Amino acid sequence: MKLYTLGTGAPLHYTRATTGFLVEAAGEPLLIDTCGGFELVRRLKALGKTPEGFHHAVLTHRHGDHIGGVMALAIAANPLHLYGSADALQATKDLLTLTYGEAAFNVLEHVQFHPVEAGRAYDIAGYTLEFLEVVHRVPTLAVRLEHAGKVIAFSADTLPCDNAIEVAKHADLYLCDALCARADGASYIPRVKDLQHPIAAEAAQMAKEAGAKALALTHIARYGTAENMLKEAGDIFSGELSVPDDLHCFEL
Predict the structure, then answer these.
(1) What is the pLDDT of residues 207-221, one digit of tens each?
(2) Quick count: other Cβ atoms within 10 Å of Cβ 162?
């Protein structure tokens, strides 16, 4: 199984695209969040792929930096299956309607919306996915994906919480939200908390408590530096640790 980081940045990052991941195994490819818009197409092209080949996407919550790429998928992929909370799916439908106007009715004909519930497991595109509710400014679901004995967990956007630990229990790879390190500037920390995200040390503590084998810090703010984040997280988490760039490939 492979996981590609399509976007690893927060919305205002200068070089990183916003959140999106691609999982590939023997089954169909699966997107977990879709970046913030049409940059999804460029990220896929950089991997030698086109949006027409993607028919399944999980949406962790309704913020635009996670659902925006559906604007591209909806006019390229037929059919397109979207999975998420009722809140995230309604926001995505509204986005498509606002973007494409009258043409949205044609676009929506081949988009299927599949609501999922926290605490339940689903078979999606050949993978087993479980969703847990985490703590963010809008309804948000963390994701646990299992395939062929391997586990990938994604915190989505969240404050530190029990479910952000539970979702990553003994995961082979934990993709965890972390905007920055304390060393990146004390003045940023209140803003991070107001936005309801963790910093690197908090992500590392959750990964440690979960017993995850590897931790990848993602959703990096423009003021977050990989050097500081790796040092801060490495003081807590002893497993494999990274701050991956966009288009990085993890092989499990």
Answers:
(1) 999 999 999 999 999
(2) 12
Beta strands in 185-232 (DSSP E): 214-218
Q: Classify residue 106: in a domain, yes or no.
A: yes
Which of 143, 160, 40, 165 is CA-nearest to residue 83? 143
Q: Enter the pTM of the model.
A: 0.96
**Residue 194 placed within a domain:** yes
Owner of token pair 């309607």: 97
Chain segment 102-153, per-residue pLDDT in tens: 876 788 999 999 999 999 999 999 999 999 999 999 999 999 999 999 999 9
C-alpha 28/C-alpha 62 separation (Å) is 24
DSSP three-state, residue 166: helix
Instruction: Flag whether 252 is in a domain.
Output: no
Q: End-to-end CA distance of the chain, in Å?
A: 5
How many domains are contained in the chain?
A: 1
Closest by CA position to 172, among listed 226, 201, 207, 212 = 212
How far apart, in whole angstroms, are the C-alpha atoms of residue 213 and residue 227? 21
Across-strand partners of 240? 214
The two three-digit tokens of residue 149, written as one number: 């004995």
Residue 71 lies in a domain: yes
- Domain span at residue 102 reads 2-247
- Exposure string of 41-60, with b = 16+ CB inside 10 Å and e = fewer, is bebbeeeebebeebbbbbbb
Do the Cβ atoms of 56 and 26 come closer than 8 Å?
no
The enclosing domain of 136 has a CATH number of 3.60.15.10
